[in-house]
């Protein structure tokens, strides 16, 4: 039995996820995935660990058990309600080597630095420079990162920092809620990169990687979403059942400027190709939608799907990963994660 499994035996999971005083929290990750990330993090007794995304407090309790009495855990969350309750639950159990703070985790927490390990349960827009600056040499970061500038295109990356430079050691299938500047209320709507959203007559949204070509009124995004909601052509995907993690990663790896993700229903996401005049996507259930049978976007989508099948639906773990420095006029400082084959 590994160290994380042993720690889990000492931490009452349901006491954190369904505390009778606070009630169940929707802001929590699957315990099996938490165990995977913590195993990847290779935590040792005495380590100083920072976690981004306090959630129910369960992951912080596991970390506190792993670092032992000589280690410490700093936990950050943008939601003060979750932070207050996590601190109280830890206190109730006599856990005094973890402390939760209300803060935007993308800025890290310099007061407790340097850290030996960092783990994130929320997805920043890129690997923040603050995280790299605040980790000790040789330290590990395990975090979900976007692989394209549209929602839900993420992998979990294991990153080693040496001499202030981060390097990717491995990537895994996975992703978590977007890191946002305020608590996220609508869990069905992405917290970032939504270019147009409808709330009536029913919720729907679209994210276009070509947003830089759109006008201030988001005419292109609005038009593309309208074409998909009123698709004149539908067809089933004739391949096997869609492997969504593989497909979304492959679509991101293509690096096409016209990549698009949409939520035409709250519980059904889709990925495809759009322009200001054409649109085509494949949904998670395998249904293909297009503005017309001879749509140029539909032809491109068919080509993408053919390429995906030809390379045998690769898993994210088989891709090559690299961090590309960003900052200056491009936005916040840090590194974008990009995958290739």
Short description:
By secondary structure, the chain is α+β, with helices and mostly antiparallel strands. It is built from 9 helices and 19 strands.
Description:
- This protein is an alpha+beta fold and 341 residues long.
- The protein has two domains: 171 residues, Vaccinia Virus protein VP39 (Rossmann fold, 3-Layer(aba) Sandwich), CATH 3.40.50.150; 115 residues, no CATH class.
- It is 26% helix and 31% strand.
- Helix 1 crosses helix 4.
- The longest helix is centred in the last third of the chain and has 15 residues.
- It starts with a helix and ends with a strand.
Q: Indicate the proportion of strand residues.
A: 25-35%
Radius of gyration: 21 Å
Distance between the termini: 35 Å
CATH class (first level) name of the largest domain: Alpha Beta
CATH topology of the largest domain, anyone? Rossmann fold
Instruction: Give the tally of β-strands.
Output: 19
Secondary structure elements and pairings:
Layout lengths: L2 H8 L2 H5 E2 L3 E2 L6 H11 L6 E5 L5 H10 L4 E6 L2 H13 L5 E5 L12 E6 L6 E2 H5 L1 E12 L7 E9 L2 E9 L22 E3 L5 E5 L10 H11 L3 E4 L7 H11 L4 E7 L2 E7 L4 E5 L3 E4 L5 H15 L9 E7 L7 E7 L1
Parallel strand pairs: 3-4, 3-6, 4-5, 6-8
Antiparallel strand pairs: 1-2, 7-19, 8-9, 9-10, 11-12, 12-14, 13-17, 14-15, 15-16, 16-17, 18-19
Main attributes of the structure:
9 helices; 7-stranded antiparallel β-sheet; Rossmann fold; about 350 residues; about 30% strand; globular; 2 domains; alpha+beta
């Amino acid at each position: 039995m590994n160290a994380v499994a042993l720690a889990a035996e000492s931490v009452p999971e349901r006491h954190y996820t369904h505390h009778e005083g606070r009630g169940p929290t929707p802001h929590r990750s699957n315990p099996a995935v938490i165990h995977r990330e913590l195993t990847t993090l290779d935590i040792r007794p005495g380590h100083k660990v920072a976690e981004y995304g306090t959630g129910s407090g369960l992951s912080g309790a596991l970390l506190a058990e792993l670092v032992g009495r000589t280690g410490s855990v700093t936990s950050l969350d943008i939601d003060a309600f979750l932070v207050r309750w996590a601190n109280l639950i830890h206190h109730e159990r006599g856990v005094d080597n973890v402390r939760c703070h209300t803060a935007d985790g993308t800025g890290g927490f310099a007061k407790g630095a340097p850290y030996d390990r960092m783990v994130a349960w929320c997805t920043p827009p890129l690997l923040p420079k603050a995280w790299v600056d605040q980790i000790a040499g040789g330290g590990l970061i395990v975090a979900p990162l976007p692989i394209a500038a549209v929602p839900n295109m993420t992998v979990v990356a294991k990153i080693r920092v040496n001499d202030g430079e981060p390097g990717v050691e491995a990537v895994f299938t996975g992703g978590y809620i977007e890191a946002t500047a305020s608590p996220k209320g609508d869990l069905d709507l992405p917290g970032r990169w939504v270019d147009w959203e409808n709330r009536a007559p029913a919720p729907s949204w679209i994210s276009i990687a070509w947003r830089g070509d759109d006008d201030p009124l988001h005419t292109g995004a609005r038009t593309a979403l309208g074409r998909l909601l009123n698709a004149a052509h539908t067809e089933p995907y004739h391949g096997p059942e869609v492997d969504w993690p593989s497909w979304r990663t492959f679509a991101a790896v293509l690096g096409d400027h016209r990549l698009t993700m949409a939520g035409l229903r709250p519980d059904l996401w889709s990925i495809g190709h759009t322009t200001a005049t054409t649109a085509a996507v494949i949904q998670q259930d395998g249904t293909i939608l297009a503005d017309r049978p001879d749509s140029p976007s539909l032809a491109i989508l068919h080509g993408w799907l053919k390429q995906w099948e030809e390379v045998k639906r690769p898993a994210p773990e088989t891709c090559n990963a690299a961090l590309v420095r960003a900052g200056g006029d491009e936005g916040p400082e840090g590194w974008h994660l990009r995958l290739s084959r």
